[in-house]
Each structure stands twice: as structure tokens, then as C-alpha cells.
């Protein structure tokens, strides 16, 4: 029976790397829901759309945005496209990281993204990571995982990840950005970041990426065996 794996948690705690690894091991589709909010932010910035929920410019802009996922020939992973344009590297830039949380807090944006995410995942056998996947997008997911780690651990990881992309940021800049995003993500009214009651928790400060992947993979295998019996 197809299953859905929802991975939520704070910014920069290794959700995406874990989710990708688990999806690869299981042969499941991997969807990075954060990439969708980032792509919407990129569109708003490019078109000078004010981040205001009821602004007609924003309402109209949302109808002009078409997001999709295309498998990257180098990584073999699905990457988001914005109106047909590959924007994976654009959406990882600090300017997007600095603006995405206010955009992701807008109820009208969340409503549109949740609808698309549910559509993408309707057939199951998917690993999706984000903030509200286990609570709002797939509340009946068979496996829910909540990942966390201290802001210092997350900032060090993010710094290394950015460095591999040729982006240099100080640790304190990254800590500031992560803390601000945590605050906005956890306190918004719609789809706030919170652990689903039944989610299994992993403190990623205590495990290597390989261990995290293995833990989630084993949980998924257990559930899949039970659902076959
Ligand atoms: O996972 P990420 O850092 O790429 O996410 C970018 C932003 O989008 C982050 O501020 C939280 C927000 N987000 C969200 O609100 N809901 C999701 N399901 C995924 C991401």
C-alpha cells in the first residue's frame, strides 16, 4: 500500500537532506515544499509585489504563478520550476532566505501551496518536507517525523552548505536569519511550525545525516510491513 512520509522541523536542521536520502532508498518521490514558497518569493521580488494578503496585485500575481517540479539530470532529484524556468539556484540565495518567511506567513499563499502539495502527493509513495506537512498538508500521513536541532548546530550546517554553492555568510548572519525565520514560522496564524502529536522526533544534533536517513528509513519499512499484513 502506498504510504506518505511527512517531515517537518526548523529551518536548517537537515530535513531536506534526510528526506532526499529516504526517498532515494525507498524509490519514492521527494518534494521540497519550502522550494515552492521560495519560488513564490522570487516571483514577488522580481515583480515588486507587496507582501500583503489582501493586496489585489498579490492576488493577481498568484494566478500568474505556475510551479512545477522537473527532475534534474545531474542530481536525479525533482527541482522546482517557476513558469517553466529552472530556479533552483536562484531560490537558495540569501535574498530569498531573508524574505521567504513573511511570504510563507500569508494565508492566501499558504492556501494555494497546500492545495498544490496535496495534489502532487495524492497517490502516496512520497516524502515531503516542510513545516506543516504532518499537521495541515497530509494530516493522515502514515509516517510523521519532526526534526530539530539547536540554532548553532543548524547555522554551522547551513554555512557549509552555502559554501558549497559559493555563497559566503558569517555564522552570526546565519543565526540571525534562522532565528527570525523560526519565530515567524512558529507564530503565524495559518499552518504554524509545530510538531504533530503523533510525529516521531529526531534531534539532528545527535546524529549524522546517514544515521538520520537510516532511522527514518527503518520507521518507513516497519510501517510498510504492517500495512502489507
Ligand atoms: O525549508 P526551507 O528553509 O526551504 O523553507 C523556506 C521557508 O518556507 C521557511 O521560512 C518556512 C517556509 N515553509 C513553510 O512555511 N511551510 C512549508 N511547508 C515549507 C516551508
Helix-strand blueprint:
Blueprint: E1 4-9, H1 15-26, E2 29-32, H2 33-46, H3 56-64, E3 67-71, E4 78-82, E5 85-86, H4 94-104, H5 107-120, E6 126-130, H6 133-137, E7 143-148, H7 151-164, H8 171-187, E8 200-203, H9 209-228
Parallel strand pairs: 1-6, 1-7, 2-6, 7-8
Antiparallel strand pairs: 3-4, 4-5
Bound molecules: 2'-deoxycytidine-5'-monophosphate.
Describe the structure in your own words.
The chain is α/β, with parallel strands linked by helices. The protein has 9 helices and 8 strands. α2 (about 35-45) packs across α4 (about 95-105), α4 (about 95-105) runs parallel beside α8 (about 170-185) and α7 (about 150-165) crosses α8 (about 170-185). The N and C termini lie close together (about 10 Å). Bound molecules: 2'-deoxycytidine-5'-monophosphate.
Q: Please identify, by name, the CATH architecture.
A: 3-Layer(aba) Sandwich
Q: Provide the domain count.
A: 1
User: What Rg is obtained from the alpha carbons, in whole angstroms?
Assistant: 17 Å
Number of helices: 9
What string gives the helices and strands in order? EHEHHEEEHHEHEHHEH
Task: Identify the CATH class.
Answer: Alpha Beta
What proportion of the residues is helical, as a percent range? 40-55%
Number of strands: 8
What ranges have pLDDT less than 50 throughout 5 or more consecutive residues? none
CATH topology: Rossmann fold
CATH superfamily name? P-loop containing nucleotide triphosphate hydrolases
Termini Cα gap: 10 Å
Rough outline: globular
- Which percent range describes the beta-strand content? 15-25%
Order of adjacent strands in the largest pleated sheet: 2-6-1-7-8
Ligands present: 2'-deoxycytidine-5'-monophosphate
Largest sheet entry = 5 strands, parallel
Amino acid at each position: 500500500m502506498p504510504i506518505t512520509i511527512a517531515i517537518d522541523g526548523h529551518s536548517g536542521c537537515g530535513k531536506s537532506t534526510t528526506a532526499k536520502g529516504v526517498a532515494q532508498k525507498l524509490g519514492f518521490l521527494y518534494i521540497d515544499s519550502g522550494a515552492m514558497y521560495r519560488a513564490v518569493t522570487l516571483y514577488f521580488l522580481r515583480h515588486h509585489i507587496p507582501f500583503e494578503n489582501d493586496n489585489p496585485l498579490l492576488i493577481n500575481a498568484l494566478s500568474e504563478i505556475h510551479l512545477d517540479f522537473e527532475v534534474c539530470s545531474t542530481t536525479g532529484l525533482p527541482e522546482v520550476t517557476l513558469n517553466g524556468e529552472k530556479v533552483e539556484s536562484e531560490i537558495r540565495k540569501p535574498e530569498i532566505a531573508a524574505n521567504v518567511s513573511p511570504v510563507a506567513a500569508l494565508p492566501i499563499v499558504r492556501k494555494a501551496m497546500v492545495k498544490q502539495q496535496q495534489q502532487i502527493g495524492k497517490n502516496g509513495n512520497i516524502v515531503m518536507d516542510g513545516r506543516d506537512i504532518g499537521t495541515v498538508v497530509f494530516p493522515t500521513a502514515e509516517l510523521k517525523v519532526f526534526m530539530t536541532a539547536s540554532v548553532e548546530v543548524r547555522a554551522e550546517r547551513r554555512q557549509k552548505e552555502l559554501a558549497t554553492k559559493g555563497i559566503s555568510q558569517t555564522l552570526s548572519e546565519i543565526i540571525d536569519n534562522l532565528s527570525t525565520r523560526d519565530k515567524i514560522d512558529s507564530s503565524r496564524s495559518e499552518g504554524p511550525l509545530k510538531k504533530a502529536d503523533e510525529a516521531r522526533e529526531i534531534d539532528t544534533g545527535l546524529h549524522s545525516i546517514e544515521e538520520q536517513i537510516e532511522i527514518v528509513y527503518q520507521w518507513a519499512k516497519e510501517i510498510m510491513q504492517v500495512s502489507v499484513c
